Amino acid sequence: MEGAKTEVQRKTLEERREMDGLSRIRHSCAHVLATAVLRIWPEAKLDIGPPTDEGFYYDFDLEHRFTPDDFEQIEAEMKKVVKENQTFEMSEMTREEAKAHYAKLEQPFKLERIDDIPEGETITFFQNGEFTDLCAGPHVPRTGNVKAFKLLRLAAAYYRGNEKNPQLQRIYGTAFKNKTQLNEWLEMREEAAKRDHRKIGREQGLFTLSPLVGQGLVLWMPKGGIVRMELQNFMQSELTQRGYNPVFTPHIGSIELYKKSGHFPFYKESQYPTIQVDENEEYLLKPMNCPHHIQIYAAQKHSYRELPIRLAEFGTVYRYEQSGELSGMTRVRGLTQDDAHLFCMQEQVETEIRDTVELTLKTLKTLGLDDFRVQVSLREPGSDKYSGNPAHWDAAEATLARVATDMNIPHETVTGEAAFYGPKLDFMVKDCLGREWQLGTVQLDYNLPERFGLEFVGADNAPHQPVMIHRAPFGSFERFMGILIEHFAGNFPLWLAPEQVRVLPITEHQNEYAGQILDRLKTAGIRCGADFSGNKIGGKIRDAEINKVHTMLVLGKKEQESGSVALRIHGQGDQGVKPLEAALTDIQTAITERSL
Predict the structure, then answer these.
(1) Which pLDDT score, from 0 to 100, does residue 266 have?
(2) To which CATH superfamily is domain 12-193 assigned?
């Protein structure tokens, strides 16, 4: 049982070492970029140039406006710096020396950055060739170690992220250990651009974002609505089988509710401003469903015989994400969670946690997202970010770690990532391009039941406090949908496809036969259409492929006479001729079984 944890920890350690090596290369490449820019434009003013998860960037203040056309010249100069194989040498200066250095060079941003360094902390510089930068490192030994890099794009960035400050020009780039890795990454990036859910969502009419509605507020269009409804139907069928009860709650709540729960002020920075009705009433757009579900539990007395009580809601919540952090469906301000809260006795906790984990695993497997790891998110020792009894925290953290181990789930523990009320199991899922996303979550909470004074009557006829479990296998429909679009490149499996089947008669002589098949499909509840246009069959097939229709039934004279269909699958081409009844049975089976 311990093997899965040990293996994931080993892989994680290797990945961290790999990323640490890449970070050094990328940080060094940022300095190479700055060196090259100063050689071409000596008047440039510099700010910062850190490594990032995907590469690096450097911010410049320069009268010349960079364009992508400048990249060739800059990269050519960078190659010269690399070829010179300059050493990265660290040195120290006093605060006064550092300020004098940048005052002489007329570098105002660097001069101001010195004040960010706490008194008594060493001020270090790294020099390569003629370029010296205020920097804590680390770096590779020489510029010659920067073997494979590419400048990617430009962006505007306010100094220190404040729109009242000067706007700088940011050059983004990436770097790898060798050209093979760089080329592989660039190919993956190109594929990711093709799969961008914003692009596919627009082309396929899945969702839209309207500035008149507001930033980060998704409008689900009919085709996207079909996919969402199918996901919801799948989850609802699982909830029904597992004994969940549906509830519905409003989109706003009294500020007093969230003060009592702790969501206000714990998450104050990510919430919309309050709505002041009058001096006695103040409301907040719902940031979480859990306080509302707690009030539903608290509305009635409960016996231990009723527990566990499982309340589920596809509930919409609102988070005020910064505009610069919004991204299509994956980072939004209004999101609908497949949310549920379980109220149980202490002796039921592990069983319920296991069931919620099993539901999450089944959800991911059904959607083909079975490359994942679980992050056991714990509190930061000594931090004041967390609320509740330390003994309860210890018990909750131990329970989640034990369940992950006993279920042989690949996992690692990470401190500082718990919710303010309890630890979590966060499912970190990789898509088909190897990108990792945080999706489902299971959270164990002793804190909120205590805050709200929740009770049930035990077998001893005395009041007891229930334990609360929060869980959301999808996380949110918006984020999950965005990831699914990119994972499938918009080519949804048959059970999710907005248009599952399209009937394509070759000539008008097959229109009557096509109509009969269309009626059969509709009667069976299959989402279908037909192309009765005068286009040639090649054009009809092309239109169906462009619209990502999953299955095409092509009908010619031979198919009409034999009561068969020529089957085509989107992206896979001709599948041969089948008797109509066999084809319909196969389609229905694939939908029922949710085949990928």
Answers:
(1) 74
(2) Threonyl-trna Synthetase; Chain A, domain 2 (3.30.980.10)
The class that CATH gives domain 199-250+303-488 is alpha beta
Q: How many CA atoms lie within 13 A of 446 on its CB side?
A: 18
pLDDT at position 53? 86
Mean pLDDT for the stretch of residues 570-585: 95
| Neighbouring residues of 485: CB distance < 8 A, sequence distance ≥ 6 | 195, 197, 200, 201, 206, 329
**Annotated catalytic residue 464:** no
Catalytic (active site) residue 570: no
Confirm whether 392 is a catalytic residue.
no
How confident is the model over 411-415, as a mean pLDDT?
92
Q: What is the distance between the alpha carbons of residues 436 and 355, in angstroms, rounded to a whole number?
A: 24
Average pLDDT of the segment spanning 74-101: 96
Choosing among 1.10.1740.10, 3.40.710.10, 1.10.3470.10, 3.40.50.800, the CATH entry for 501-592 is 3.40.50.800
Rounded to whole angstroms, what are the CA distances from 149 to 82, 166, 451? 11, 29, 53
Dist. CA 503–CA 581, nearest whole Å: 15
Active site residue 470: yes
Distances from the Cα of 462 to the Cα of 184, 304, 457, angstroms: 64, 10, 5
Which residue of the set 86, 271, 337, 500 is catalytic?
Answer: 337
- Catalytic-role residue among 26, 223, 286, 319: 319
Q: Is the pLDDT of residue 179 over 60?
A: yes
Annotated catalytic residue, options 27, 271, 286, 290: 290
CA distance 521 to 529: 9
Q: At what angle do helices 349-366 and 390-406 cross, to 10 degrees?
A: 50
Q: Could you report the per-residue pLDDT of 351-392, keeping only the tens digit for each? A: 999 999 999 999 999 999 989 999 999 999 888 888 889 999
Tokens of 289: 């469903």
Highest mean pLDDT among 12-26, 272-286, 453-467: 453-467
d(CA 419, CA 357): 18
The verdict on whether 26 is a catalytic residue reads no
- Point out which residues pair with 174 in neighbouring strands: 150
d(CA 506, CA 513): 11
Cα gap 151→135, rounded to integer Å? 22
Structure tokens at 218: 């998704």
Report the predicted TM-score, pTM, of the whole model to 2 decimal places. 0.84
CB contact at 8 A, 444 and 423: yes
In Å, what is the CA distance from 341 to each residue of 185, 445, 457?
Answer: 41, 10, 19
Domain ranges in the chain are 12-193, 199-250+303-488, 501-592
Q: What is the pLDDT of residue 333?
A: 95
The answer to whether residue 8 scores a pLDDT higher than 80 is no
